[in-house]
Amino acid sequence: MAMQPHSKKRVCYYYDSDIGNYYYGQGHPMKPHRIRMTHNLLLNYGLYRKMEIYRPHKATADEMTKFHSDDYIRFLRSIRPDNMSEYNKQMQRFNVGEDCPVFDGLYEFCQLSAGGSVAAAVKLNKQASEICINWGGGLHHAKKSEASGFCYVNDIVLGILELLKYHQRVLYIDIDVHHGDGVEEAFYTTDRVMTVSFHKYGEYFPGTGDLRDIGAGKGKYYAVNIPLRDGMDDESYESIFVPIISKVMETFQPSAVVLQCGADSLTGDRLGCFNLTVRGHGRCVELVKRFGLPFLLVGGGGYTIRNVSRCWTYETSVALGVEIANELPYNDYFEYFGPDFKLHISPSNMSNQNTTEYLDKIKNRLFENLRMLPHAPGVQVQAIPEDAVNDESEDEDKIDKDERLPQSEKDKRITGDGELSDSEDEGEGGRRDNRSYRAPQRKRPRLDKDNNAKDDVKPEDNKEDVKNVSNLEEPKKEIPPNA
Amino acid sequence: MAANMYRVGDCVYFETSSTSPYQIRRIEELNKTASGNVEAKVMCFYRRRDLPNPLIQLADKHQMAQSEDSPVAMKLKKICLKTPIGEEQAAQAVLDPAIVAMEEESSELPGTDGLAPKQRHQAKHRELFLSRHVETLPATHIRGKCSVTLLNETESLLSYLNKDDAFFYCLVFDPSQKTLLADKGEIRVGSRYQTEVTNLLKEGEEDARNSEELETLVWTPEHGLTDRQIDQFLVVSRSVGTFARALDCSSSVKQPSLHMSAAAASRDITLFHAMDTLHKSGYSIETALSSLVPASGPVLCRDEMEEWSASEANLFEEALDKYGKDFVDIRQDFLPWKTLKNLVEYYYMWKTTDRYVQQKRVKAVEAESKLKQVYIPNYNKPNPALITNNNAGTNGKGTVLNGGTNGTAAIAPTVCASCQVTNSSQWYTWGPQHLQYRLCGTCWQYWKKYGGLKTAGVFGESEGEACRGARTGEEGALSASHRPHRCTVLNCAKEFKLRAHLARHVATAHGGCEGARPVMKTRAAFFLRASPFTRLARRLVRALRRPRHHARSPFSPINLHQVKHEFTVAMAGVGGADMRAMGAVAGLAPGSGKVRVRGAVGAVAVRLATAHGSAAPRAQEWLLLTPKDRMPVPEHVAFPKPPKAPDGSLMYERVLSRAEIEARRGETPTLAPVTQALKRRAYDDINGLDRGVSSASAAPPPAKRPNKHPAPMQRPSREQYAAMCARAQATGQPLPAHVFAHVNGKPTSLSGRGGRRHVISWMDAPDDLYYRATETAKAARRALSCGELRRGARAPWRAMRPPAGPPVLPALKGTGNAGANTGTGSAPLQLVILD
């Protein structure tokens, strides 16, 4: 099933040509080189020329200490392989040494990774882009003052903190095979960021991510963990990803999404134990993209580097809404992709220990938790991609008849209703502010005009657009009632 | 084929001993040894039975804590699991009042709700404990695959029971420290861990962020160029690169042919440079073209691959060989003029070359010893525990259970110690040798895989376990004691750790007082005639030392093999004379030993009183009996007389009220009431009677308590049974043999050596009877000597003729909750002991 071009979006891509040359050390599975391999594939696939390409700045210590503790960042800045012996105590304290070795250019690597995600978040805030990609980011294990799982500086947290300036609620989704513990911990007690992590659980790094970990304090029910077992395949993954994410979108109503695309959930990963193909992995990107929210894509794990670069290349094409050939183009690292030299990979015959029964039970439990979220009753859920009209029919075809419809599908079937939109405009619901969900549409004259032009033949959609246009007259910045 | 392919990461059964259950291991590595054998490096999972007992209790509590979200549970979790706990601490934790309080509430695994006790028992076999313990085993000992998953609390244990070879685990066991740990990380809460959440910008507030400072645009898609134009420009830049290489001296040495130059010029670095050039020249092809060929000559972009000389490449390969991929060392010792980045970049490009592929092949040969998978064929050799027909001719199909009715087949029947089937294509010896347990094929497989028997507390499991423990020392001694107390009330079967808790449960939940025993229709009646050897065994064998206990718990099995074994040991070398002497001591042989006649208790008392020189007992007022006319008369009779039949007789025999008894006491005993009183009475006749009444002297014994949990009971109708009994009485024979020999249900395990066992089918079992002794009967009984009484009890079919005129019938007491019945007059007595 080839990905149909879904929609053309403005995509910004962050890359520094140095990033591939950082080296964690002999035998270490984390290889920043995979980011360069992805980059070369993007160039030779011709995707490069379809995106805005940015070289990110190097994040400053000031930026990093928005989340991380001062002494931790100071430590990262000063430690080098040649002065390691002076820092024995601190290395222990900050968990630097074994999994997270000290290597040459460690701090620069962190700066580039964090710089990309922060710049991408700012880009989204300024609405200069709809989708931002930073494959050098996604280091989701890093803690406030502790390195963990090959991650030193948590670029995701820094990026989300940036997004929170403009977005009342930000959704974080993590499809790495490992639990996104660093991000979850950072936002464990806040209700403004919901973290949703799909991961292998049980006798697996980092050990967190139990179904029962749901957040604390104000953040209770704002951490969602989907513990999975070995052998997740595309079908099972989608069967749990779609309903959970739809429900989360419906109840949490974020105005921006960050997706960590750790590629160690792919089949044949050196450290992973799932059985996803590039297509199944990319499907998650596609599904999240459909919600049409400001979207930040970051990298993450991924330790069979040929598959990582395949995956991220494909996901870039999904973000761009461009179809690419299965035949890999020639590039500097072409030999890595032998013997078949294809973009897509096939799953292995490993058994899937996640039974439908197990997944259903998990799903139901999570639905119960999500029901606990404060939820404005009667508020229509509105995950309408602005260009939903383009692909109505084909999306419907793709959806399994027995499955619960994704919200976007449901919404397509709702004709514009004057009464509903009236009440929306009044904005009396505490949970609704102007920035949630449709905000980007309202604020983008260019796109709205495009829509109007396209929608001439679709009278039922005109109301929406008329409304959007009328919203343009409203002040650009509004403070939500609960801000 | 695929089933016998074992991969790294698979969970498998390992057989390390033919008699013990399989070990469950996960393959971490498969290595080929020099001798060509495959060794598996495996990680161990432990079964419940492998764990020391305190830890099992701890594990159960952890389960409980997980199933509830109460504060107590949370506290418990902290106590038990936050830190590794040694056994001593574990014991302390057990004593924690909070835990004890919780234990009282329930002690079930989560998700066991709605599980039958048998399933709950089996679920325990499915629980494993992960360990970090790694060992190496020969791969040929693999006996199949299984699956081990972390239990998720949304799952019911039933889902594991329904699948073969499916196990779950919750906790991690450290065999060296003897500790249990939850395999769970923790999200920490506090300002040291969470971030400060940025506030939403206020109205009019400007974000200080400036994108220009954060990023540099390298390419934009809004360039007005078509794809074709870009492609064309890329071709041009490659051509320029080829030409540049032709001009460049060092390059022309390295790439002597045009093709090679063109290939070098097509590397990604040239393309990236071309794109950058386009961007820098504002996407004007013209400007970009001219910047490709500046005055200094055509632009030449070379990456590390091209930059490096052949000698450098050789040095690098040599260094790689020596140091591996330690680029810091390589740089220091071999290529100090390169930067680390140069080395890394070169390394990843070098990997695409033929040189690397060759090296990889060499490595692949080396790595051949590390296997990804191994094929182990099914293991077909018979287990030594398998009983072949040669060494156990009596086993196998067609063994007659219970010796039949003709009494010829006195050999020990083969019954599966677990499921009690008698028919199986294969039999295995199980447990300690001398106990001679047998397991059927299925139960043997179950035992090997799951390390337990299918049913809890079945015939001798605990004994087997205990013996195993005795042999293996410390390990097993701890496991046997872990057997919960189970409520025996029908449809309840809750388990408790302590007997006291069970008692409390019975008192509160079932309203019963002490000693709740199942109150239900007995299954089948049989009679046991003990041979002299059986009687001797009763005295000699340790396992039978508690006759009273066995009488009270007729359901608890007695391990016959053990009895036999002990008896043979005790009797070894004992001659006939000794045996007779022993029999005498045991009071077995009739007439042996003198029976001392002491007279009636009253006479003894009087004798003692006079001996002490006190006044005649008559003198004491309080010793005098209350005259009959002054006896208290009850104000009302709780149970009025039953309705009368048309002929004026009572519908059933009345229970005498106290007054009537008193009245009757005065009368001279005659035969007539005796015969009337000796009439058999059906069990349910008294079932409706209140116990308050039955406490009167002549009231029936409280043989049965009304069943609070009535289950559908099957029993022959009154008419059927009456007919049966009438026929039996008319012929003067016990109930027909076919009634007894017809076995419908499972056999009971109690049986005497050589004794015939009559088992009445469940359907055909007669109703329980009770015998109400009248004054006359009691008097007659008193006239019998103790020995005669006992003999009468043992041989109830024998008529007894007491010295005094009328035939007096001994009242017989059955063991356990059995009733006793007697025949009338000279009709043979029949004792039916109901189990």
UniProtKB/TrEMBL annotation, chain A:
Record-given protein name: Histone deacetylase
Subcellular location: Nucleus
Nucleus listed as a keyword: yes
Record keyword Oxidoreductase present: no
Recorded catalytic activity of this chain's protein: N(6)-acetyl-L-lysyl-[histone] + H2O = L-lysyl-[histone] + acetate
Keyword terms: Chromatin regulator, Hydrolase, Metal-binding, Nucleus, Repressor, Transcription, Transcription regulation
Species of origin: Leptosia nina
Gene3D superfamilies listed in its UniProt record: Histone deacetylase domain
GO molecular function, one term: metal ion binding
Lineage of producing organism: Eukaryota, Metazoa, Ecdysozoa, Arthropoda, Hexapoda
Record-linked PANTHER family: HISTONE DEACETYLASE HDAC1, HISTONE DEACETYLASE HDAC1-RELATED
TrEMBL record, chain B:
Residue ranges occupied by any SANT domain in the UniProt entry: 303-355
Assigned GO CC terms: NuRD complex
Annotated C2H2-type domain residues: 485-515
InterPro entries in alphabetical order: BAH_dom, BAH_sf, ELM2_dom, Homeodomain-like_sf, MIER/MTA, MTA1_R1, SANT/Myb, SANT_dom
Keywords: Acetylation, DNA-binding, Isopeptide bond, Metal-binding, Nucleus, Phosphoprotein, Ubl conjugation, Zinc, Zinc-finger
Subcellular location: Nucleus
ELM2 domain mapped to chain residues: 185-296
Location, primary (coarse class): nucleus
Disordered: annotated span: 689-718
Classification via Pfam families: BAH, ELM2, MTA_R1, Myb_DNA-binding
GO biological process: negative regulation of transcription by RNA polymerase II
Gene3D superfamilies: 2.30.30.490, 4.10.1240.50, Homeodomain-like
Source organism superkingdom: Eukaryota
Positions of the BAH domain: 4-184
GO molecular function: chromatin binding; histone deacetylase binding; sequence-specific DNA binding; transcription coactivator activity; transcription corepressor activity; zinc ion binding
Similarity field: Belongs to the metastasis-associated protein family.
Name of the protein in question: Metastasis-associated protein MTA3
Provenance organism: Leptosia nina
